[in-house]
Fold each of these.
Amino acid sequence: MPRAAWGAALALAAAAPGCQKVIAVDLNNANPQMVTEAVVTDRPGPYAVTLSMSGDYFTPSLYFPPVTHAFVSITDDAGERDTLKEVAAGTYLTSALHGVPGRTYALRVIASGKEYDAVSTMPARVPIDTLVALHSRESDGDQVYNVYVVFKDPPAPGNFYRMNLRTNVQISQDSIDGRRYHLYNDRLTNGNEAAVRIRLRRFFSPGDTLWVDLLSIDKASYDYFNTLDNILTSDRSPTSLAPANPNTNLTNGSLGYFSACAMDSKLIVLH
């Protein structure tokens, strides 16, 4: 799961030919913001919530200070409540909660005197029917696998998906499709069979294994990952600071996301 600490303000200045106009731009450092990453699935727990603080625009860093000693709880609309325990700096785990499709979950975080809330409804689990891997070679000789994730979209409209890949191969993210998040919605294929292609660009060989997780997510989670992916791939650099923040379902200015999702997984061995 991603560190979502990419908050920053975009400063723009322009000078038209033939004009001499001074534009004063305030370049104050961006105030650190809470970054929340929280997921509940229909798999057995515990489920994790991670809390950290964002950096500022002028000091790029991959270290985000953890938020410790926070109060974190998750409740559902069936009356189940779990107060999470901090097991490492900024990492909080559930102890009794179990995700159930169809239930709505509410996250509550209190840290440094501020409260942050989010709500997410877990969709029904959609099973993967099959995984198909087709092998070919590029003109430069590189091996390429096109993996198709085949599943039947439910008849009701408004279904959203994220595909997570796990493999035995030590690779960079750009070796898989050049994208960081594989997302799909049923806007054009509602109620029909879907075959989503994931292109393995290089470094894969016959005998390598690939796990594909199909996560059924709600629209808020889809919007978060969709906007985050657009930001992170805008200049193909994972360490660049974004001029905007991805959409979030969290309140009170927190970055990040809270997602209740149902998951199906399937393994394929490349040939």
Amino acid sequence: MLGQEVVRVFSADPQWNVVAWDYENLDITDANKVRALLTAAEPALVINCAAYNNVDGAEAEPERATLLNATAVEHLAKTCTEIEATLIHFSTDYVFEGAKRQGYVEADGPNPQSAYGRSKAAGEISAQHNPRHYLVRLSRLFGKPAVSENAKRSFVDTMLALAQQRSSLEVVDAEFSSPTYAPDLAQAVFDIVRLQSPYGTYHRTNDGACTWYGFAQEIFRLAEKSVTLTPVSPEKFSRPAARPAYSQLLTTKLPPLRPWQAALADYLNEQHS
């Protein structure tokens, strides 16, 4: 979902010669292959859009989540250091415990409460093995579905699909966080590089925050879907992984991106055009 947008944005600038690799081209969990391919390609910039993002699945297979979200990132970071390339790696609001109602800034220390969150927090440390790194945290990614058979469907597309099947839905009215539109995030990353922003950690979500229920309300309002929504507590659904109650990612280093509602409206208009 994110990788295709990053390729699109960077390819539009003639300064960049974009080489896009999927799993079939490079298994980033293989340190030798990472070193061989990156050394041969001699990139100035490496953007890692791969991740294990099955939050509940990670509770059952934490080793697999850590392999892709942390160990593989270390392979990339070490090779990037050797070839003097910049590394951009993405992380998540789930690295935070979720106790700060006012949200989290870039300098706040991670305290993950789930196997997925711990694997992503470990990945943040891995990325820092390369002094030339940008660590970009995001949350609730949505956008054009990826073509990969293992691609995860966004909450927006899940809600729209359910609206075709049901006239009423129960949605968790908890977990305040910020939706992030994939094209906006890709452009934000491009701008970080273009402006030669200082290396380090950045929060790049769309502005504002909502619960899952609030998100669903806006989806159906903008899509003009007649669905009866009932807010429920997280305990209504059995989910193995703990979620942060409050994990809005606040930006203190760069101007905020546009409101998530505006980005959502653009995505829904694009879907119907």
Amino acid sequence: MSETTPFIHEDPWRIFRIMAEFVDSFQTMSQVGPAVTIFGSARTKPTDKYYRAAVDIAKGLAKHNLAVVTGGGPGIMEAANKGAFYGKSPSVGLNIQLPHEQSNNPYQNISQTFQHFFARKVMFVKFAHAYVVMPGGFGTLDELMEALTLVQTGKTRRMPIILVGKAFWGGMVDWFRSALLEEKVISPDDMNLIQLIDNPEEIVSAIFKHYETSGFEPTEEERERQLYL
């Protein structure tokens, strides 16, 4: 009986802390407006070409009144927040408390700190109108697969998922075709969920082209669907 005592006394109270994290972040993010989530490595240096590309992409998005949402840390996240920071729309950092690596970058108009990865991931996807995925490691891959799964299964609206860095992502996309598609574990249309684009201006144009007919405001059906992410 004594072994179960910590669970009985501690875990139910943790649920209330998780609820509070969701409520706080929902209130914050609901004020942001149309946004693009940018994923990428925390280890990318300012001298790297992908860092510079992330700055340019975010500048282009902010110029067109689209908020930029990142994980709030260094590397690609810092670059994207930096590009958006002086623009017309918010530069949002969804920071996470980690024992190492993560430190909040200073280019955030709106900053939210999370203890739980799963709560933070909900905010990344629920309020996104597009995903721009720069080169990154396990965390970036996790976020990319989450976005692809949610769109593929219809748990969220269909939206642009743009991979930046054809040299970096090309092998993975080829493997999707040669392994996943060949084995029929995905459908041919699933490959259309991904776009490979390197030019920052073309990335912004691709996002707006997607919403030319539907607009950025979700339909009532799409709103209802997103309640069950």
Amino acid sequence: MKRRRFITASIAASTLAVAGKGVGASEAAANGHREYYQLRRYNLISGQQLKVTENYFSGALMPALARMGMGPVGAFKLDIGPETPAYYLLIPSQSMETLAQLDLRLAQDSEFLKAADTFWNATSAAPAYQRAEISLLAAFEGWPRVTPPATAATKGKRLFQLRTYESPSDGEHARKVEMFHSGEFEIFLSAGFHPVFFGDTLIGTRMPNLTYMLSFADLAELDAKWDVFRNDPAWKKLSANPRYAFDAIVTNITNLILSPLDCSQI
């Protein structure tokens, strides 16, 4: 129990540090106005693992998350990016503690354990997946909640772009987050993008970094929207601002293209 309290307190302290020193950011975190995200990547081998893992998502994990009041949950397969096949899960919650202890809580849900048995108790002779990578993120103060595209409700055609920006230092990372809040959100919307979420990585790999997701009808729309964004006078002005342009505040970008699994709620 002491270890759990320590982990929760440490995550909370990290959240406030990343969010910045302003009272608004602190109040948003303290009052639960922002969501937190668990972003999971499952590395798989083509064949049986794909079916077992997708069945686990749809038949066990997502119903259990719904019982906890968590959602909408995004479930995606990697179409363009390194090391395919891979599945991604985006799990939102108002509670950092719930996300930090998620597997411990799932292990106490008898209904979940029964439905998840094939995946949860897979053996080394027939593993359900190769490895899982899990990150914990805090929603940006200026984009505090997941916003699924309208086509998610009707299971319409859609694809997603998942972008991760790595910065050379914590200070440069904070400057890039500030840049989003200083006009970049508005430029995305003006260009016709549909942002799904923006999140600061609190616990994960290759830190410091941030991750965000955009939704499109298809790759042609993706390319067209980015052309509009790049040529927007507001973007040219913002990106030329000496506060953001005097040094490289982003040193690496990971750019993935995902499509929703049938069970995805996003």
